[in-house]
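Protein: 5'-deoxynucleotidase
Species: Shewanella subflava
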Amino acid sequence: MKQSTFMAWITRLPLLKRWALMHCFQEENVSEHCHQVAVIAHLLVVIKNTRFGGTLNPEKAATLALYHEVSETKLQDINSNTKYHNPEFTKAFKQLEDLAEKECLATLPEDLRAAMEPLIVQAEVDPEYKAIVKAADILQAYVKTNNELRFHNNEFEHVKQNLDRKLAELEASMPEVKCFIEIFLDSCTTTLDKISEVQY
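Structure follows.
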């Protein structure tokens, strides 16, 4: 049986550094990022279903988040200011991401592709789940930003300003995001000594 290189795409994600153009107090790789986005996406759906009448599957949201950056195995992490610098560049880069995702999908045995395509190829992801994962992605970046600022890394000051605006927009349209922020956000930078003291 021919060996698939699919897992090689996944196991190389820890080699890809996020925030590569910035000084970071604590480095972060794409695999760590995807894991944290998956946890946040799962929680967002649990909140949505429990408090706001949602009917999404939390496990599906988490799985989508785990795969949402798979194209970066080929393309690496690109600064969002660069990626969205102008519409022409954004369109071209999105096409590259789509090609990379389809290349990754093609490494799987043919009989497995139909099940995996709506998880890996972002153009095939259900829009409602895609919105959840995008919100989780922004929240994870915000947690990272707050942690860097906590250690007086002023390189993240402009990042926080940009994310503040994005989160305000999300809160207005997604009550589960507002709820997540109220419950979890401030405690994400809690010190180890204080973790056991925090009671909700």
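Remarks: The mean pLDDT is 92.
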